[in-house]
Amino acid sequence: MDKYLFQEFYQQHKKSVFAIVNLRLPDLEDAKDVVQEIFLELWLKRDTLADIRDIQPYLYVVARNQVISAFRRKNIQLKNEGLLLEGLNTLDYSAEENTMARELHQQINVIVEKLPETTRQCYQLSKHEGKKNREIADMLNISEKTVRNNISEALKRLRLTLKESHPEIFALFLFFIK
After folding, report:
1. What's the chain's Rg over C-alpha atoms?
2. What value, to the nearest 5°, has the Cα angle with vertex 26 and ends 155 and 10?
3. In the list 27, 51, 123, 165, which could disulfide-bond 154, CB 3.0-4.6 Å?
4. For residue 173, what is the domain's CATH number?
5. Which of 3, 44, 37 is nearest to 21 (CA)?
6. What tens digit of pLDDT does each residue of 13-43 get?
7. How many domains does the chain fold into?
8. 82 near 128, Cβ under 8 Å?
9. Are residues 14 and 90 both part of a single domain?
10. Considering the entire predicted model, what is its pTM?
11. Which residues of 154-176 are buried (b: 16+ CB within 10 A; e: fewer)?
12. Do 136 and 70 share a structural domain?
């Protein structure tokens, strides 16, 4: 891919990549830095981009990995689903991005509601309320291992169900659960 094709690629995808990154990094400057790192990485791997059949899920994975790296570098604690919901209300997204995020949230809620009660409670207390496993174990009068197993089971069911029923939003889900 030459310089001009890459510039076109950059113009086409910069807003969606920024929206993904900014969901996890609400600080504008941090988000811009990570987006710059993403496109630098893509530039360095530009010859392999043509081999990728569906670029959007690939961009989600690259963005997720760069955000994780940024958190590791700065030792910032991740905020789980709450940031996604807050971001929907405060960030300027394209109609497609808004639709995907809303659909993801709706699908997660539908799947979570079908989980067994203890599994659902463990997942919601962990991911929605940010409770630690020890706190959840004390609240539900179960062991920490049971809490971990229930959260793991909930995430497994979410992954499998979304992958089968909504492959188009599965990559977005992967970005948010990490």
Report:
1. 18
2. 90
3. 123
4. 1.10.10.10
5. 37
6. 888 888 888 888 777 888 888 899 888 888 8
7. 2
8. yes
9. no
10. 0.46
11. beebbeebbeeeeeebbbbbbbb
12. no
> Are 119 and 168 within one domain?
yes
pLDDT at 85: 47
141: left (phi over 0), alpha (psi -120 to 50) or beta: left
Question: By three-state DSSP, how is residue 175 classified?
Answer: helix
Please report, in angstroms and rounded to a whole number, the separation of the first and last CA atoms in the chain.
31
Give yes or no: residues 52 and 93 share one domain.
no
Structure tokens at 81: 């689903």
**DSSP states along 21-86:** HHHH--SHHHHHHHHHHHHHHHHHTHHHHTT-S-HHHHHHHHHHHHHHHHHHHHTPPP--HHHHHH
Task: Identify whether residues 173 and 99 lie together within a single domain.
Answer: yes
Q: How confident is the model at residue 172 (pLDDT cuts 50, 70, 90)?
A: low
> Cα 107 to the chain's mean position, in Å?
14
The domain of 22 spans 3-74
DSSP 8-state code for residue 143: -
Q: In which band, very low, low, confident or very high, does the pLDDT at 79 lie, cut at 50, 70 and 90?
A: very low
- Measured CA to CA in angstroms, residue 144 lies from 104, 129, 136, 137, 160 at distances of 28, 17, 8, 5, 24
Kindly report the CATH number assigned to the domain that includes residue 45. 1.10.1740.10
* Domain identity same for 62 and 118: no
Would you say 130 and 79 are in contact if contact means Cβ atoms under 8 Å apart? yes
